[in-house]
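Assess the record.
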Amino acid sequence: MADRLKDKIAIVFGAGSSGEGWSNGKATALAYAREGATVLCADLSFDSAKETAEIISGEGLAGIAIAVDVTDTSSINAVVDTAIRQYGRIDILHNNVGVVTAGGPEELGEEAFRASLDINVGSVFRTAKAVLPHMMARKSGAIINISSLAGIRWTGYPYFAYYTAKGAVNQATVALAMQYAKHGIRANCIMPGLIDTPLIYKQISGNYASVEDMVNERNRLVPMGHMGTAFDVANAAVFLASDEARFITGVCLPVDGGQSCSAVAGV
């Protein structure tokens, strides 16, 4: 364990996993803890949050599980109140909650479109609203939002609502960074590219003839020749949350194996 986040208090919204293996949020919660942070692992599924917290505590590190619904302001406030009551402050706000909704404007219902925005972008608004007063009081804090390469590029899937929402997360991050820079608060986002997490096997594999075809095609599309892992995203988050990034704010960082640099698929 290193000490880049020693004595920091972090809340990871979306710290669970949608299946076996490592989601971005689960890996990030553990990575924060390994760097010395106390991590509140918040997720809609308490069992999933508990699994992450138990992995952390199993390594002799500090993590607790808590249930949260990021579409419910009172639920988010309860998580923040727990952090303040038990630890006195919040140093890191990490937003990892997201949902992929298939379809273009013709196929999408209005309810599904609104729900996608409410979860993907509304969660950033509500968590920031709850945490910012505490960061403002201490004139310190780091916010990391997980966006997607889909926020700036077409990724090959018909996900109109997802593209829209993640583009909004990018600019919401910039807005937070600019408004609160003078208060000692930094805000950055990470745009994962093609990452091999449990989510893709649940929400994306249906676009392919087989799981093997999906994996092979996604690997082919990355210039480095393979998908990233959840820990690639987590390592970027640790850097952005740490004092090593103290002069970095308003950045939308691709973690994508070079995919965002190429205009040619698979190059």
